[in-house]
Amino acid sequence: MIHQLFTMFNWLGSEWVLGVLFFLSILTGAVVLARWFELRKLKNASARFWDEHGEAWFKSADLQNWKSQIEQLKASYACLETDTLEVIERNHKGSDEEIDRAVTAYLDHRKMKLERYIGILGTIGANAPFIGLLGTVLGIIRAFHDMATQGLSQGMENISGGIAEALVATAVGLIVAIPAVVFFNVLNKRISNLVRRAQSVSALALSQPEKK
Fold this sequence. Notes:
212 residues, mainly alpha, rod-shaped
């Protein structure tokens, strides 16, 4: 039984692990590109909104004019802030508590959509080093098996190269994991900032008394 397992591990080697890691690197790139451009578009629109309106609103005593300009604002700024203002306007007949719940539900929904697939990056970042380590272990098993079957003198000539080749799997695992973790944190931070900006606009709009 042990001999059969040893033979199986020797047959597996580390090549298939490198193939898995290559696939994970492609998957990481696809997720990052898909999320990056969408978040970048929202971030740029949000930055323009705050530069042209948001900062001034914090110093203004009257924000009621945005209600008559909501369609224009949404057409000019495709961001969470204007979407949040639209939710407030559509629920304006409710109490502040009801409007706040509607805004919270909406932003939670948008956050879940923005976070779509990002969890894949966290999973890859956490597991790629272990996958690489598995490849190294399998490669070392093969190297020692070759040394045992070929004899000590001839096997020693190959074992160094075999171990060096096996260690490549660990290095590749780290190379795949590090960018995945970095982008996982960066993208989550960007999403958090976008939602917080929208929440600030909501609080600012709801803090203004209705005109009589």
